[in-house]
Write a structure and sequence with these properties.
Elements (H helix, E strand, L loop, with lengths): L2 H23 L2 H21 L1
C-alpha cells in the first residue's frame, strides 16, 4: 500500500467518524451544510486559480 492510498483511507475513516459523531450529537444537518459549502468553495477556488 502506498502512502497516498493509506492517507486516503485515513481521511475517509475520519470523515465517517465525524458523521457518526454528528449523528450522536444531533447535528447532522449542520455537517451536511458545511460539507456542501466546502465542496462549493473548493470548486470556486479551483476555477479562480
Amino acid at each position: 500500500m502506498t502512502i497516498n492510498k493509506f492517507r486516503s483511507v485515513l481521511y475517509k475513516t475520519g470523515k465517517i467518524a465525524g458523521d457518526i459523531n454528528a449523528i450522536k450529537r444531533g447535528k447532522i444537518f449542520q455537517r451536511i451544510i458545511r460539507r456542501l459549502l466546502g465542496k462549493f468553495t473548493g470548486r470556486l477556488f479551483s476555477r479562480l486559480f
